[in-house]
Amino acid sequence: MKFTSLLSAVLAGGAALMAVPAAQAADYPTKPITLIVPFPAGSGTDAVGRIFGSELSAILGQQIVVENKPGANATIAANYVARAKPDGYTLFVTTNTSHSAAPWLMKNVPYDPVKDFTPIARGGNLPFILVVNPKRPWKTVGDLIADARQHPGRITYASGNSTGIVAGATLANRAKIDILHVPYKGTPQSLTDVVGGQVDFMFTDLASGLPFVQSGQLRALAVSTAERSAIVPDLPSMAEAGVPDFDLNSWNGYFGPAGLPPEIVAKLNAAINEVVAKPDVKKRLADLGFDAFSSTPQAFGQFVGEQRDLWGKLIRDAGIEQQ
């Protein structure tokens, strides 16, 4: 009897301990949540993340604190989140830079983009556009390519993230031109130098580049996707502009560290889907150049794995060597 009583007590105690995380997940959130952004303030991901953060705060009833940790192709921020406690109070809004491209661009990435994270939801897409300094004579992508062929190695392109790196290298590869890459730590700095004329052109996300195009500080020549974008329907695709097999897009999504409780994942996924379903929010995001939509955690996880493989092929095909 004594042994049976002791065993029952142990089992009951174990059940009580197991119930604690479930209870905490049910009460989540009970304190502010930190949303890590892997790019500088003023970048497209930062602008979108702050809108989502504000909306999620209202839905979840807790403050969302946005914290920027830029640098190293978004790997600094990604590694920080991967090492965080999986309690739902450190979240990550990121793009293909940290999860699709960095593992192929860099020799030593300190995390696994699939195993070290819990996928929560897609956020949408950040379409990219090719923009040039308006003092340059190019009115079309064909003009830029023709000039680059006449002056090999003299035309420069900036990049502030992995999509910018891969897009520029893909253009060089597809068009058979020799152009010089000038890398930056973030999009705001690279845009500043294209506007100032220190660099000739770049591929930038719509959220960051569109205000400069609208003000006349930059000229947009094309979108980086296979089809035209509904956000800027007057811009041709790269294929229409004469560059075949060119289809690059920057995805956006939300993660937690590996091991995030399913109850918390479900609550966050529902909240993100609620944000995306708001017509006024969707319009605000579209005005920034962001195509907002969401997904289930399972679909997002599958998408992340597929994108990692796709970007590996894009980077190999563009002839980019790991740094």
Write up what this structure looks like.
This protein is an alpha/beta fold. It folds into two domains: 33-126 and 249-318, Bordetella uptake gene, domain 1 (D-Maltodextrin-Binding Protein, domain 2, 3-Layer(aba) Sandwich); 128-241, 3-Layer(aba) Sandwich (D-Maltodextrin-Binding Protein, domain 2), CATH 3.40.190.10. 46% of the residues lie in helices and 18% in strands. It contains eleven helices and eleven strands. It has helices at residues 2-27, 44-60, 75-82, 96-105, 141-150, 162-175, 187-196, 206-214, 262-276, 279-287, 297-317; strands at residues 33-37, 64-68, 90-95, 117-126, 128-132, 156-159, 180-183, 201-205, 219-223, 250-257, 291-292. Strands 2-1-3-10-4-11 form a six-stranded mixed sheet, sandwiched between helices. Strands 7-6-8-5-9 form a five-stranded mixed sheet, sandwiched between helices. Helix 2 crosses helix 9 (262-276) and helix 4 runs parallel beside helix 11. The longest helix has 26 residues, at 2-27. The radius of gyration is 22 Å and the shape is globular. The model is unreliable at 15-20 (pLDDT under 50).
